[in-house]
Amino acid sequence: MYDVIIIGAGPAGMTAALYASRSNLSVLMIERGAPGGQMNNTAEVENYPGYESILGPELAFKMYEGAIKFGVENAYGIVQNITDQGEFKEVVTEDKTYQGKTVIIATGCVHRKLGVKGEEEFAGRGVSYCAVCDGAFFRNKRLIVVGGGDSAVEEAIYLTQFASEVTIVHRRDELRAQKIIQDRAFANEKISFIWDSVVEEIKGNEMVVTGVQIRNVKTDEVTEEAAGGVFIYVGLDPLTEPFKASGITNDAGWILTNDQMETSIPGVYAVGDVREKGLRQITTAVGDGSIAGQQVFDFIETQKDAQLTK
Ligand code: FAD
Ligand code: NAP
Q: Cα–Cα distance between 32 and 7 in angstroms, integer?
């Protein structure tokens, strides 16, 4: 039995692993892909203290090296559910069951779908959710980016190195993105905006995307814009399906914790983007991970004391 099982190896999970293993706890970190989480799909990170700028995958690798330095064990697996067996928890993947005295959930979230006609049909044929992964396929094409948050605006800027032109379609007349990111987009000659508008349909021929149908939400006017690709950044959905039966999520699926990262199940913690929280960033994920990594140590010590006084 492990002292701690960590589910997910993004910045939150890897930091929890570092803190727990440095406290001499036995730690298993289960990940369904490459360690690094969303950092692997981020071009440049400019707001992680200590680095003026660093590539997302590079930061991911540095964090991974640090996380495993004190003896963390890694396992590949897609966690399907967890059960509370009282003195220990069981974590079930597609082919194995692990036991841990504590569990830290760090599964993050995924991009939300727009839910319009053509989105599924043209996925991978002009519709993308990852500029870093797919941007280079769209050299000299006009691109549409949907959304007004940090992701949409930052990735639109990234795409200008490949595209002939990038048009951001946003449903309001002001962006949600951080001011510094907005200012860069406004100053970029390749970026234009279509305000107060939503993409209603993604159109294409039998092969690829050729454009979008857009509706102005104030005037109801419908127009068509030609485009070789559509990048969708309309927010995030939590990856909490495996934990819903445990009753630790809210109606929208985010996991509720206190500021010690404790869920309503003793010994089960949640950290990073998967939590209901205000600011989803690498820094806040790392902060959450360090708190939970320390808390599991205190929890296990308290359990030991309780056993001794029985
Ligand atoms: P994640 O990074 O999402 O990691 C979760 C991990 O859990 C993943 O590796 C996933 O594979 C794994 N997992 C999920 N479900 C399971 C399962 N069932 N079983 C096993 N493993 C599972 N933040 C910044 O601070 N600066 C930036 O510049 C920045 N740029 C961004 C750009 C984009 C395009 C996006 C989408 C986000 C960006 N962010 C940025 C936000 C930042 O990446 C996240 O806040 C951060 O990665 C959250 O860390 P996390 O560890 O909570 O989750
Ligand atoms: P987000 O902040 O939730 O923004 C989503 C955007 O999509 C909003 O502008 C929203 O419009 C719009 N939207 C939502 N549903 C829509 C729909 N159905 N149709 C059209 N538009 C829709 O999501 P995000 O930009 O992916 O960012 C997620 C988290 O990662 C945030 O915490 C963010 O700070 C973080 N992040 C940070 C950085 C960085 O620090 N450099 C970079 C990327 C992401 P409204 O504005 O009208 O709600």
A: 9
> What sign results for the dihedral spanned by CA atoms 215, 221, 222, 225?
negative
Q: Which SS3 state, helix, strand or coil, does residue 94 take? A: coil
Pairwise CA distance, residues 89 & 102, whole Å:
7
Q: How far apart are CA 275 and CA 264, in angstroms?
A: 13
Q: How far is the CA of 152 from the centre of ligand 2 (A)?
A: 7
CA of 34 to the centre of ligand 2 (A): 24
Q: Encode pLDDT of 262-277 as tens digits.
A: 999 999 999 999 999 9
Cα dihedral across residues 216, 218, 220, 221: positive or negative:
negative
Structure tokens at 96: 């194995």
255 secondary structure, DSSP code = B
Domains of the chain: 2-111+236-308 (3.50.50.60), 127-232 (3.50.50.60)
Tell me the pLDDT tens digit for each residue of 83-141: 999 889 999 999 999 999 999 999 999 999 999 999 999 998 999 998 988 899 999 99
Give the residue, by CA position, lying nearest to ligand 2 atom 16: 234
* 133 is a catalytic site residue: yes
Residue 252 CA from chain centroid, whole number? 16
283 lines ligand 1 (CB under 6 A): yes
145 alpha carbon, closest ligand: 2
d(C-alpha 134, C-alpha 151), whole Å: 15
Tens of pLDDT, residue by residue over 192-239, are: 999 999 999 999 999 999 999 999 999 999 999 999 999 999 999 999
SS3 call for 211: strand
The pTM score is 0.88
